[in-house]
Amino acid sequence: MTAAPVLVLNAGSSSIKAAVLAPDATGTISTLWHEQQSWTLTPGAVEQCLAPWLPAALAPWQGQLALVAHRVVHGGERFRRACRIDPEVRRGIEAVSTLAPLHNGVALAVIDWMETWLASWQPGLSQWACFDTAFHSTLPVEQFTYALPAPWRQQGLRRYGFHGLNHQHVAETVSQLLREEGQDDAQLHAVRLISAHLGAGCSLCAIRQGRSVATTMGLTPLEGLVMGSRSGSVDPGLLLHLLQRQGLGAAELDHALNHHSGLLGLSELSGDMRQLRQAAAGHSGSQLAIAVFTARLLEGIGAMAAVLQGVDVIALSGGIGQNDEQLAHDLHQQLQWLGPLRLLQIPADEEGQIARQCHAAAGSQQIAGSC
């Protein structure tokens, strides 16, 4: 039996995705409506985007929604599962917003706008949060600990990991696929999976028995692989050089690393892999960007394989991972040294994962204080 539909809002730095989904008792999701709107995050952008668009789009479901579910990128150490949003939970999200400045702030702005609008549209409708960091709460201590002075570590400066909602979706999808092919529970528990979320943001996750055991993003979503406009990992000494010897301020450094680096910075053309592929034949910057992106990805896969002591399945997801056939071909050729493995391309489904998690949490009467 299909339950009352759930509204999912996935707010990002350049766009917001909205979907109405209907989960059933088995966890199967039916998408009733899905739309994406682009925005530039200036003061008032959330109001200017949502007010003329969302109420009209949601009119067919007025009074019918079970809950509103939000993707929140950073949950810190506290938030390890879906939570109903109350003032205490909101303060907790705000407290770690400096660690995901491109994401948490806009999610809170959407939550606040929705609270005001829902008061007249569907009074009493609860809002819930799902956290991208939650899936990585199973990381062992040696994987989440940085080699930093104890006073810094005691402030919570550690690896958290991100893209957890989609990494979990990939893990569950691969498990279901293998089960349909006849593998039993013992065989599924032994599968060594590397999930590669490759899009505007990119990260790898080593997964064993459905649990995250290593990942490439860290305290913030800036660490790890080369991304669309984010640098990924660089030598900390390089950053000190820019600060101390060239006089860059922290704000300039932050902006350059998040908005003018990655594929965009390397190519000096675009942060979109599709455009780089089209231009690569005659554009050296595009060639360099693709080469560096692929080299760092191969290095990361090697590291994840070392943690897992081998690999059985590599699953590519995200806009690049699920659509770039040239990348899939190149990886297949260059990873032969790992031995027999399956290379899959799996569409991302963060909205479906959010709907399932929040619907299950609400159904079990989980309260905010238990998060």
Account of the protein in words:
The chain is α/β, with parallel strands linked by helices and 371 residues long. The chain has two domains: 6-151 and 351-370, Nucleotidyltransferase, domain 5; 164-349, Nucleotidyltransferase, domain 5. Helix content is 42%, strand content 18%. The strands form two sheets. It has a six-stranded mixed β-sheet. It has a five-stranded mixed β-sheet with strand order 9-8-7-10-11, sandwiched between helices. A hairpin with a 3-residue loop joins strand 1 and strand 2. Helix 12 (273-279) packs across helix 13 (284-308). The two termini are 29 Å apart. The model has no long low-confidence stretch (mean pLDDT 93).
Sequence-ordered SSE layout with sheet pairings:
Blueprint: E1 6-11, E2 15-23, E3 29-38, H1 45-50, H2 54-58, E4 67-72, E5 83-84, H3 87-95, H4 104-121, E6 127-131, H5 141-144, H6 150-153, H7 164-180, H8 185-190, E7 192-198, E8 202-208, E9 211-215, H9 236-244, H10 250-259, H11 262-267, H12 273-279, H13 284-308, E10 313-317, H14 318-321, H15 325-334, E11 342-345, H16 350-363
Parallel strand pairs: 1-4, 4-6, 7-10, 10-11
Antiparallel strand pairs: 1-2, 2-3, 5-6, 7-8, 8-9
Helix pairs in contact: 12-13
